[in-house]
Amino acid sequence: MSLLLRNALLLDVTTGEYAEGDLRCADGRVAETGRGLRAPDGTRVIDLAGAHVVPGLIDAHVHVTASTADLGRLGSMSPAYVAAHSARIMGGMLDRGFTTVRDCSGADFGLADAQAEGLIRGPRLLFCGKGLSQTGGHADLRGRGEHLNDDHPCCAGVGRVVDGADAVRAAARDELRKGADHIKVMASGGVASPTDRIDSTQFSVDELRAAVEEAEAANRYVAAHAYTARAVNRALDAGVRSIEHGNLIDDASVELFLRHDAYLVPTLVTYWALKQEGREFGLSESSWRKVDDVLDAGIVALERAARGGVRLAYGTDLLGGMHRHQNHEFRLRAEVQRPIDVLRSATIGAAELAGRAGELGTLAVGAHADLLVLDGDPLADIGVLADPAKHLRHVVQAGAVVSSANS
């Protein structure tokens, strides 16, 4: 299969500059770029008449199985039912321009294989399986009177409860056995968990290091859910590669990010959405009241990290019917960042985090042919990315047009 896009403005995300020319895709990759390219027989040719072309977007923090904000319900749902919802959620992400996503607990090898084989429409899926949580931690979704029943391997829940370094090590090995691209640990309390506090730290340092050691042994890495500076800093010292959320980091956190060459994945839009709509989509009243603890702090944390030179990746963490707000993260981040820097976090930054630099998030020859055709310049107006229904003309994934404005 071959596709030739003529007369485009092609964005080099690294330099932030456009080049006029053509781009040809073949066998799912970018085959060549330049002026006046020739189309081999059988090539589909689209004249873009000067439209802007950017790499396909990468959301580095999603939960494609989260059809509800009541995450505790997922474990009791039929996995087949959850998969059907996941297919719908993933299709929506693709139509919004996200050609790759990193799932941060819930998705498994079945969904990743189904997408890769073309059984469902959706972004390329980088998955971790189930997130690891201590008893009473962020992925322990039991109420106070409930007993543990989420350890079945086919359970559709987002987490598994493990205590002690040996148990963490065994669980990490099990997720890696099933093909996990990364390991997710819950290193602090959170909004959606019923029995913890946002300002708690979770897992001992030995437990965190056990997860890191197992991931590194498999040439993978650990992502850690953490909010407060205390939780973030101990996770970074333990060797995690990415901090998810990090709304309450401090200057010492910035220094540790730089020292360990780690990434921050802010998820500003989920707190905005949870405050507006969380209860409508299943968030409990007690969890909804936790949102205020992190809502306003997120933009301050992003500004502190960006100013300090921390590596950033784009993430959203949306749940239930709130997935539709995925692109609003662009507008929120643009309050403190330049549009090019926000776009970099959703392309080359997220690709580097995932260990896919040069393959994803770029229009370079040899990369996966994932790209967006836009009616407008996102570097001049972030709304071009924040409002895909108005500005997204085509989504190309693996060299094929998979979504178009008029389709």
The residue fraction in helices comes out at 25-40%
* CATH architecture descriptor of the largest domain: Alpha-Beta Barrel
Helix/strand/pairing category: alpha/beta
Remind me, CATH topology of the largest domain? TIM Barrel
**Mean pLDDT over the full residue set:** 93
Q: What percent strand?
A: 15-25%
Global morphology: globular
The whole-angstrom Rg is 20 Å
Total helix count? Answer: 15
Query: First CA to last CA: what distance?
Result: 20 Å
Please tell me the total number of domains.
2
Residue runs with pLDDT of under 50 for 5 or more positions: none
Q: Which class of the largest domain in CATH terms?
A: Alpha Beta
The profile of the biggest β sheet is:
8 strands, mixed
The CATH superfamily title of the largest domain:
Metal-dependent hydrolases
Total strands? 18
Protein name: Imidazolonepropionase-like amidohydrolase
Keywords: Hydrolase
Pfam families: Amidohydro_1
GO molecular function, one term: hydrolase activity, acting on carbon-nitrogen (but not peptide) bonds
Describe, in plain words, how this protein is organized in 3D.
Residues 53-389 form the Amidohydrolase-related domain. InterPro entries: Amidohydro-rel, Metal-dep_hydrolase_composite, Metal_Hydrolase, Metallo-dep_Hydrolase, OTAase-like. This protein folds into two domains: 2-54 and 364-404, Roll (Urease, subunit C, domain 1); 57-326, TIM Barrel. It has 15 helices and 18 strands. It has helices at residues 79-95, 109-116, 165-177, 205-217, 229-238, 251-260, 268-277, 285-290, 292-295, 297-308, 328-333, 339-345, 348-353, 383-386, 388-391; strands at 2-12, 17-26, 29-34, 44-47, 52-55, 57-62, 98-103, 124-126, 131-133, 159-161, 183-186, 222-228, 242-248, 263-265, 311-312, 371-374, 392-397, 400-404. Strands 1, 2, 3, 4, 5, 16, 17 and 18 form an eight-stranded mixed β-sheet that branches. Strands 11-12-13-14-15 form a five-stranded parallel β-sheet. Strands 6-7-8 form a three-stranded parallel β-sheet. The model has no long low-confidence stretch (mean pLDDT 93).
